[in-house]
Amino acid sequence: MGLLNGKWNLFSRKGRRTTVDAEEIPPGVDPQDHREGMERRVKRILWPVRIGIAAAVLLAAGLDSFYILSESEMAVITTFGSPASVTSSGLKLKLPFIQKVYKMSKEIKGMPIGYEPSYDSSGGQQVTEDSVIVPSESEMITRDFNFVNVDFYIEYQIVDPIRAYVNSENNITILKNLAQSYIRDTVGSYGVDEVITTGKSEIQARVKTLLSERLEKEDIGLGIYNVTIQDAEPPTEEVSNAFKAVEDAKQGMDTKINEARKYESEQLPAANAQADKVTRDAEAYRQQRISEAEGQAARFNDMYEEYAKYPLITKKRMFYETMEDILPRLKVIINGSDGTQTLLPLDSFTGNEAGTGGVGSAQASGGTGSGQDSPAQE
Question: Is the pTM of this model over 0.85?
Answer without folding.
Answer: no
